[in-house]
Structures are given as structure tokens and as C-alpha cells.
Design a protein that fits this description.
The chain is mainly beta and 444 residues long. The protein has 7 helices and 27 strands. The strands form 4 sheets. The chain has an 8-stranded mixed sheet.
């Protein structure tokens, strides 16, 4: 990873239209070139998409541990990010929400990957060869309705792109080698979520919270980029209208990097401007159940093993138990913690050095197709200006496990799907608690 200066060619660039070939007037002087470089934002440059993805994962881990991507500053001292400028501006209309992705973009929303450049704009992401940066900057000032776009069946910049990302990818034919990614799903008119009380199941309920936005979703909802509340619904206002909770439950996918979670902050109105301030904020991922498929019959009863299970996007330490009854899919977090503690005591009796278990797996011996895992609730509450809770577990995928010292259980490439999860955020101001929530149940 390195930094690159991309000049903003103003007076010397003749653009008859956004997509015409760049035409330069006679050579600029060295003085003019130096001035252009000083005006130009530093752009991070990655050698490959793999390098890009690995850096995002490293940033994600640092932020989730409560830190910041300090290594970026150490390696690139002149770099200023989109996250610390545009996303930090209280009046920004940016709907990116991912501080991880924002950390590698410059204030212009740009990053170089190999021979290509990515440019974030208000309505999505534009891609092209890095020499076409001025074309992308011109297009970014347009609206999505002004783009002449068409769907594509393959994306030459990233051969390993999955169907989810490809479904939202378009080309701009009149520009040549320019692509548009509908990251915010502006062109997707399908409604995946509802405010109707359709889920008649037990859920963890935070005490005294009024969820101004309270969505219940089923089916494939988690399998696409989403933002709840949507970008235009910014505030859950407290009494008096001068203070508001601003929660965003989101999922973002960019070149194979996938991030989801809850971002919560509290805003106070000063004149015409909303500004965040320190308050009691909470972001949470609760009631998480994973349905694991393709299990075979196991001739055992009781605790079987404890090992790390890696799902697509997330890993957990799981205690496995073979049971005579199906898992209770309304299990409270307190009951789960008791089960985890019981599993730890069992493991120690077997000579294992186990101090933490993230969840339990119940293999129903009479119908192994009904195997489910319950993960501990993740509730992050802080007195601060914002609180993040990363989710990042992919809604469908494959899982595998490590081999413990007991060696009773090893899993390789088994399929799973998220069966149930609740994601919410809220602010506590004076005597009120207000926020937003999504409750999801897979129905197929």
C-alpha cells in the first residue's frame, strides 16, 4: 500500500463532455504542477484487491477492539481519510456508514486498486482505469437519473465478484470502461422489510426503549445491502424536538469486503445544524441463532466438544451438546450464559483450558437437520458521541471448525444460514430512550 497524488487539472483540461478523451494544452510549468500537487488529495494505492481486502479486515479488527487504524497514518503520514473528514461532518449527507471503508478513502471518496480507481459519490460507487479519474469526478457530480447505464454479466475489475455484488453492477457504455455500483440499492425497488408485526416469537426486549423505527424482516432481507432507517430518515427525536437518536443498521459490500452492524449516536440541534454530543448510547446484536445444515447422526448424549467455529465473516468459540430435544429458539441470554458456564466446567473436568465460550450448539439426536447454535448477545453501551456494534456474520455461507484437544468434533465446509437475529441501537436522554431496531427471522 502506498500513497499517490492525483492532480486536479482545472484550467488545462478541456472536457467537452464527461466521457471525452482528456485534452491537454501545451506543457504546464513546474510551478503550476507543484501547485496542482499541493491542491490534490493523497490517494491510498493498493497493489491488488487481495491487498485492499486484507487492509480493510485489519482496520475492522482494530476498530472493533476500540482502537483506530493508526497503522495507516504511520505508513502514510500525509493521508487524510473520508472517515475523519466527510463522515465526521455532522451535516454530511454521506450514507456510507462504514468507518472501515471510509478509513481508506480520501476526502474525495477515492482509492486506487491496481490499475483501477474507485470513487464514492452521493448515489453509489464509480470504477474505471485510474487515468480516467477526471471522468469519474465529472460523473460524480451528476445524479443517478442522468447516467445512461446498462446491466453487466461480468465485472472485469474483479473476476471473483459474487452474484450479490454483480447484481448491482452496471456499465456506463458511452464512457468506455466506466462502471457503476449501486451500493445503496437505489435502483432496487423491491421492499424487503415491513413494519407489520409478522414475527410471533420471543425476543430480548431492552427495558423502556421506544423504537421509533421498528422493522421486522423475513426471507432474503439480510442478503443484500440495507440501511434502516433509510438515509432520508435521519432522526428519532426526543420530546421537544431539539435532541434526537440517530441509529443506522446497515450492511455494505465492496469488492468482496462485507461489513454489517449498528451505528448509534445522539444529536442536538443548534440553529439549523445537528451536532452529535456525548450521551448514553447503545448498539446491540441479540437473539442470534444459526441453523447448521447437513449434520449426520451422532451416537452420543450430553456435551461433546468445545472448539472455534469459523462462519463466513465471523468466528465463535462454540460448545457442542447432543440433546434429546430441539433447541429452544426463545432462549434468553441469561439461560445461554448458564449453559456456557456449564460447558466450561465440563471442559475443565476433561482437562481442557477453556475460559470463554461465545455460544452453544444443540445437535438434536432425533433430527440432526434441526441443529442450531445460539450466540451470546452483544450489547455495547457507552457514554460517548457514538457507539458501534459490528455484526459481519454473512446470512448464508459455509462453516468449519478447529480440532480441540479432545478431538471429538471437526467440521469441514458445512452449510449454514442465520435463522434469527435482532439488531438495534438507542440513546438515553433524560428520562427517555429512543432508537431503531430490526428483527429478522428466516422463513425458508
Amino acid at each position: 500500500m502506498k500513497t499517490t497524488f492525483i492532480p486536479n487539472i482545472i484550467s488545462v483540461l478541456l472536457l467537452c463532455c464527461a466521457c471525452q478523451t482528456n485534452v491537454l494544452t501545451p506543457e504546464t510549468t513546474q510551478s503550476t504542477q507543484r501547485q496542482q500537487q499541493e491542491m490534490s488529495p493523497v490517494v491510498l494505492s493498493f497493489s491488488s484487491i487481495q491487498d485492499f481486502q486484507n487492509t480493510l479486515l485489519k482496520i475492522s479488527n482494530e476498530i472493533e477492539q476500540g482502537g483506530s487504524p493508526s497503522f495507516l497514518k504511520q505508513q502514510n503520514p500525509n493521508f487524510i481519510s473520508y472517515a475523519e473528514t466527510i463522515m465526521a461532518d455532522e451535516n454530511s449527507t454521506s450514507a456510507l456508514y462504514s468507518e472501515v471503508i471510509g478509513s481508506i478513502l480520501n476526502p474525495e471518496g477515492e482509492v486506487i486498486i491496481g490499475d483501477y480507481i474507485l470513487k464514492l459519490c452521493d448515489y453509489g460507487i464509480l470504477y474505471s482505469f485510474k487515468d480516467n479519474v477526471d471522468i469519474l469526478r465529472k460523473l460524480s457530480l451528476s445524479s443517478i437519473s442522468e447516467l445512461n447505464i446498462s446491466k453487466i454479466s461480468n465485472f472485469p475489475i474483479y473476476n471473483d465478484i459474487d452474484s450479490e455484488e454483480l447484481d448491482a453492477m452496471y456499465e456506463v457504455p458511452e464512457c468506455g470502461n466506466v462502471y457503476f455500483y449501486d451500493i445503496y440499492r437505489i435502483l432496487d425497488s423491491e421492499i424487503h422489510a415491513s413494519e407489520q408485526p409478522i414475527l410471533k416469537m420471543g425476543w430480548s426486549e431492552p427495558s423502556g426503549v421506544h423504537f421509533v423505527t421498528d422493522y421486522q424482516a423475513v426471507g432474503p432481507f439480510l442478503e443484500s445491502n440495507y440501511t434502516i432507517p433509510n438515509a432520508s430518515d435521519q432522526k428519532n427525536k426526543f420530546s421537544g424536538g431539539k435532541v434526537a437518536n440517530d441509529t443506522k443498521i446497515y450492511r455494505r459490500v465492496v469488492l468482496g469486503y462485507k461489513e454489517s452492524g449498528v451505528k448509534t449516536k445522539t444529536m442536538k440541534k443548534k440553529g439549523l445544524v445537528w451536532q452529535k454530543f456525548n450521551c448514553n448510547n447503545t448498539s446491540a446484536i441479540t437473539d442470534l441463532y444459526i441453523h447448521e445444515l447437513n449434520w449426520q447422526a451422532i451416537n452420543h448424549s450430553g456435551w461433546l466438544d468445545i472448539n472455534t467455529t469459523s462462519y463466513s465473516g465471523r468466528s465463535y468459540v462454540i460448545a457442542t451438546k447432543v440433546t434429546d430435544t430441539p433447541m429452544n429458539v426463545n432462549m434468553s441470554n441469561e439461560a445461554l450464559i448458564n449453559e456456557c458456564n456449564d460447558a466450561i466446567a465440563w471442559a475443565k473436568s476433561k482437562g481442557l483450558n477453556i475460559s470463554n465460550v461465545d455460544g452453544v450448539r444443540h445437535i438434536y439426536r432425533y433430527d440432526t437437520r434441526n441443529t442450531k447454535v445460539r450466540i451470546k448477545d452483544k450489547i455495547v453501551s457507552e457514554y460517548s458521541d457514538k457507539v458501534n456494534a459490528f455484526y459481519n456474520l454473512e446470512p448464508v455461507g459455509t462453516l468449519s471448525s478447529t480440532k480441540s484437544a479432545l478431538g471429538n468434533l471437526v467440521i469441514n465446509n458445512m452449510n449454514y444460514n442465520v435463522y434469527k437475529v435482532s439488531m438495534y441501537g438507542y440513546s438515553e436522554y433524560e428520562s427517555e430512550k429512543k432508537g431503531a431496531r430490526v428483527q429478522y427471522l428466516r422463513t425458508r
